Amino acid sequence: MCLLTGGGYPFRRDALSGWCRTLVEGLRRFRFDLLTVTDREPPVLPAYPLPFNVTSADALQIGRAQIGRALGRERRRGNSNETGRGAAHLLCRGLVEQSRFAIGLRGLAELATERPDPLTNVPLADLLADAWRDGSPSDDEPPLPRLSTRDARTAATLLKHALGALAVPLPKSDLVHCIGGTTPLLTALAGRWQSGIPLLLTEARAPVARQRPAEERLSPAVRAVLRRFRAAVARTGYAEAGLIAPLSAYHHGWALRHGAAAARLVQVPAGVDPSEYPVTAEPGAGHPAVVWAGSGGPDSGLTQLLAAFEQVAAAQPGTVLHLVGVTPAHEDHCAEQIERTGLGRAVRLHPLPADPRDRYTVGHVVAHVPGPADPPYRLIEAMMSGRAVVGVDVGPAAETLGDAGVLVQPDDPAELAIAIVDLLRAPTRRRQLGDAARRRALTHFTTDRVVRVYGALYADLTGPPPAPASAFELALTIPAPRTSPPATLRWLIREDR
């Protein structure tokens, strides 16, 4: 198996990496090549020890080797790359008219086997501007913002960089398991088209809905190009994947709205190992404490949390906020945000503990304030730890937490602060909610369930075609969303069998 991620396991410690580690270590009968494709400086050494069933672990950076010399330059003369130009024309048209995108992307992926940069000598900015000017979105979409010449060049540079992922070679394998995200999915699609490798897609995030913090400085037109590009890549991935495994009903519905075929969707909820998150007693007498777990980056929910904690500190003097799992890359950002609030020593920064048992023990209440597209791993960890949780109703939080915690509306720091203070002042209710959260996590969100189902998915995609009568269903969990999704998960025969 090739486990393909976008900058995570085994080189970075975060919630998604922990999920990947659980999967690899739990499926000992499969051998894994681990590949992470990133546009950042790749790490030198793995952050996790590698189990015996891992054959290789590599981190590759797009952009430098493949297209570094071409970034930001549009060559307008001596164009001899007619194949690349034709594929790029279809890809650009496909940003407005969806039916053409996959054909153009596949043409570039096949050309990438012959040259590191399939867009050499292709006037991508001109093609993009022409497509944007002449195209007309569907009736249910808003009008396209005006794309100036400067915007077209900026967007072309960013698209060229992203498309460098097409040139990343995949290790020889029987199956590529891609853990969501545009960058690794581009690499997975190229491998699928070049060698016919089956593709399993785990949809852990909602990539189109998420605007990255660094993109706030871009013009509305450039942001629109990037949104459409990510949406088109996601739709192409849904079309090419043998199976798609969303983490929740929220992700399941998102995939359906973006073109995934219902027959290929298998909802597999996230899970954690109960032994890694044992229930421990609350901290003794002293200052009340709140725990928040996250990377601490601009897209992590930290800003909303700090806005709420200012009100918590005013209502409950002496309360301490523990920020657990802040990555080294985001420590400066965290410190800057804390300084703006004037909270000073009321906030403590903690790097991600090597032992998960230490993650939530310092708090009386866990505040789950995720980023706009974060998967629910940290929420499930907190629930398994038996701590009372106040969660913000973002993404799959409602269906994950159910009635085993307190849920508040997003973008309302005052409501979040009130809920936290109420629990800090009510120890009996805290214990009741913590016990309920632990029971719910044990019932629905354990790793043994995740490992068992993914073992079946791997076997299904890599084994011989089954007889028509062998279709079966997997009953995994009954979530508690605001609307009732199917209680069982469908399936499993591919449409072409």
Short description:
The chain is of the alpha/beta class and 497 residues long. It has 16 helices and 12 strands.
Topology, element by element:
Layout: E1 2-5, H1 15-26, E2 32-38, E3 54-61, H2 64-67, H3 82-94, H4 101-111, H5 124-134, H6 149-163, E4 176-179, H7 182-195, E5 199-203, H8 220-240, E6 243-246, H9 249-257, E7 289-293, H10 302-315, E8 320-324, H11 331-341, E9 347-350, E10 365-368, H12 377-384, E11 388-392, H13 397-401, E12 406-408, H14 413-424, H15 427-444, H16 447-462
Parallel strand pairs: 1-2, 1-4, 2-3, 4-5, 5-6, 7-8, 7-10, 8-9, 10-11, 11-12
Helix pairs in contact: 3-4, 3-5, 5-6, 6-8, 7-8, 10-11, 10-14, 12-15
Number-wise, the strands total: 12
Mean pLDDT equals 85
The separation of the N and C termini measures 22 Å
Over all CA atoms, what is the radius of gyration? Answer: 23 Å
Model description:
The structure is a single chain. The protein is α/β, with parallel strands linked by helices and 497 residues long. It has 16 helices and twelve strands. 39% of the residues lie in helices and 12% in strands. The strands form two sheets. A six-stranded parallel sheet has the order 3-2-1-4-5-6, with helices on both faces. The chain has a six-stranded parallel sheet with strand order 9-8-7-10-11-12, with helices on both faces. β7, α10 and β8 form a beta-alpha-beta unit. α3 packs parallel to α5 and α12 packs across α15. The radius of gyration is 23 Å and the shape is globular.
